[in-house]
Design goal:
single chain; alpha+beta; five-stranded mixed beta sheet; 30% strand; globular; binds glycyl-adenosine-5'-phosphate
Length: 565
């Protein structure tokens, strides 16, 4: 509850707006705003502030989540540690991570804009993907293909015929959604358990027209994969790669989803990061499949279990799955690499793997595994891994009449490589990182966004402890220097506590403060977001220290003692 208080300082009266909040069973008072020196002015300002706050919260709930009756506290922050997807969307909007597309026109379902912090975080995720799967390897090259390609692409790929979903509506509660064809008759309404009625089957490809005079129908790409198949020979020849090697791409894809939902999870425009790994068709074993891959642990729901109508998970290893003949070594190698990347991002513990049943395999796949993540709205697909075999190259050879075979030096024969395809929904990775990182910290009475430092949008915030040219001059110089290598932020407004809170909320892993001692000793404090511990570092060492700690070096030893910087 908010109330006005008068404080006497040197016999003069000052009015403040305070609020009592219950934290850990105890009532704590927090000052919300300074209201001025007169009672009348204070009452007017307080009313204005409280009206604005309650309107803001109501507007947020009404506009974004008409169908939800979420209770959001006045501050807009709900306290449980597990955030709902609606709260996450509101948080992302409030902090400038993600906005609805065309907000001024009331939004546009299935389309989203990344704001300044979101764009930075998203870029860092894509860069890390690229580093891990492309530039750190010798057997992978990247491309960036056009979004619209020759319409025959989609005939050859099978998307024109088979890339469709079935729109259904619940007979009991009118919930409309989409189902995969293989789910028809087997799945009940996710909201009330009622039976679904089929509304129709819809192809997911977005149509467009190319050219003005003789407009030709074309399609926005529904997956990035096709360019990697169509350009396969050109890429192989120009990059001089020998089998086995892969072609990777990150790019926007478009699907005319029947029921976009769950914030970024199911949208109509989204980003896929994927690669096609080309292997000699007779090569079943992989030289790269070593103990690091065999020993990767996972929780698996296999096809047989699901065919019996169950969803039981069991603990297994990639090596064990190969022994059970669920997948060959190359397929297993890539599934393991995907899980290793997710471990690097800190997402592994909420991941499970689901083997596709024969009845639900895509038209191009002979074996598929979904990598699911426990989102706040359930365990859902984050990434996938399909054995596409020779399907796509063969289809493009048939449709284009071009020769996409390559010459095998060993057997002196022409061959069509087989393909393993690991694929990632990049917005879904973004969403998983935010749900994993979001934490309401009771002690701080504030949100702390625990993003891994190497992905955080802002790497460090630099504060002069008090306003004043001496402090500001040093801080500005540090910012100028750091900005050449890192995205850092300069913040000189508000109390130090408030500046820490603002940065904790957006996931800034380190705060650098220039204080009184800095002037004498030429050093600063670096405060860690997650532990709130601080250490002093010489100004000349900040850059190197930051470089190290962003990439996983630690500031403190196991006993909590700071290392010497
Ligand atoms: N080339 C293979 C392919 O496109 P997919 O499973 O259809 O496979 C790849 O899509 C990934 O894209 C999925 O694993 C999922 O993470 C993501 N994805 C699929 N549909 C999406 C949508 N409507 N919105 C956001 N991400 C989506």
């Amino acid at each position: 509850m908010a109330f006005i208080v008068k404080k006497k300082i040197h016999s003069r009266g000052y009015y403040y707006l305070n609020e009592n909040r219950r934290v850990d069973g105890k009532v704590k008072t927090k000052t919300l705003a300074y209201l001025g020196k007169s009672k009348k002015e204070a009452e007017r300002k307080a009313k204005e502030i409280l009206d604005k706050r309650s309107k803001l919260v109501k507007k947020e709930i009404k506009k974004d989540f008409l169908d939800k009756k979420e209770v959001v506290e006045l501050s807009g922050i709900k306290k449980p540690t597990e955030i709902s997807i609606e709260e996450l969307a509101a948080f992302c909007k409030r902090k400038g991570f993600v906005f609805r597309s065309s907000e001024i026109y009331g939004g546009f379902a299935g389309f989203w804009d990344f704001g300044p912090l979101g764009a930075e975080l998203f870029k860092n995720i894509k860069d890390d993907f690229w580093r891990f799967f492309v530039t750190e390897r010798n057997d992978m090259v990247g491309i960036e293909a056009s979004i619209i390609s020759h319409p025959q692409t989609w005939k050859a790929s099978g998307h024109l015929e088979s890339f469709s979903d079935v729109a259904v509506i619940c007979k009991k509660c009118n919930n409309s959604t989409k189902l995969d064809k293989s789910e028809l008759g087997k799945v009940k309404c996710e909201k009330c358990g009622g039976d679904y009625e089929v509304q129709g089957e819809f192809n997911l490809l977005f149509k467009t027209n190319v050219g003005a005079l003789e407009a030709n129908e074309a399609y926005l790409r529904g997956e990035t994969a096709q360019a990697m198949f169509m350009d396969f020979r050109l890429i192989q020849e120009t990059s001089r790669k020998q089998l086995p090697f892969g072609i990777a791409q990150i790019g926007r894809c478009f699907r005319n989803e029947i029921a976009p939902r769950d914030f970024l999870f199911r949208s109509r425009e989204f980003t896929i990061g994927e690669f096609e790994f080309f292997i000699h068709p007779e090569e079943k074993n992989s030289k790269l499949f070593d103990n690091d891959h065999k020993n990767v642990k996972l929780r698996l729901t296999d096809a047989q279990t699901q065919e019996k109508g169950k969803e039981t998970l069991r603990e297994t290893t990639i090596g064990e799955m190969v022994r059970e003949n669920k997948l060959d070594e190359w397929h297993a190698y890539w599934l393991a690499e995907q899980l290793i990347w997710f471990e690097r991002l800190g997402l592994k513990e909420k991941i499970k793997v689901r083997e596709h049943m024969k009845s639900e395999l895509s038209h191009y796949s002979s074996a598929t595994f979904d990598i699911d993540y426990e989102y706040p709205f359930g365990s859902k697909e984050l990434a996938g891994n399909a054995n596409r075999g020779q399907y796509d190259l063969t289809q493009h050879i048939k449709e284009s009449k071009e020769n996409l075979e390559i010459f095998d030096e060993k057997t002196k024969k022409k061959i069509i490589p087989r393909v393993i395809e690991p694929t990632f929904g990049m917005e879904r990775v973004f969403l998983a990182l935010l749900t994993r990182g979001y934490e309401y910290d009771k002690a701080r009475d504030n949100v702390v966004l625990k993003l891994p430092p190497f992905l955080a949008p802002v790497k460090a915030a630099v504060f002069p402890i008090v306003k004043g040219s001496k402090f500001e001059k040093i801080a500005e110089k540090i910012v100028r220097d750091l900005k050449q290598e890192f995205n850092v932020l300069y913040d000189k407004s508000g109390s130090i506590g408030r500046r820490y809170s603002r940065n904790d909320e957006i996931g800034t892993p380190f705060c650098i403060t220039i204080d009184g001692d800095s002037l004498k000793k030429e050093d600063v404090t670096i405060r860690e977001r997650d532990t709130r511990k601080q250490i002093r570092v010489k100004i000349s060492n900040i850059k190197e220290t930051l470089r190290g700690i962003i990439n996983g070096e630690v500031l403190f030893d196991k006993a909590g003692k700071p290392f010497n910087f």
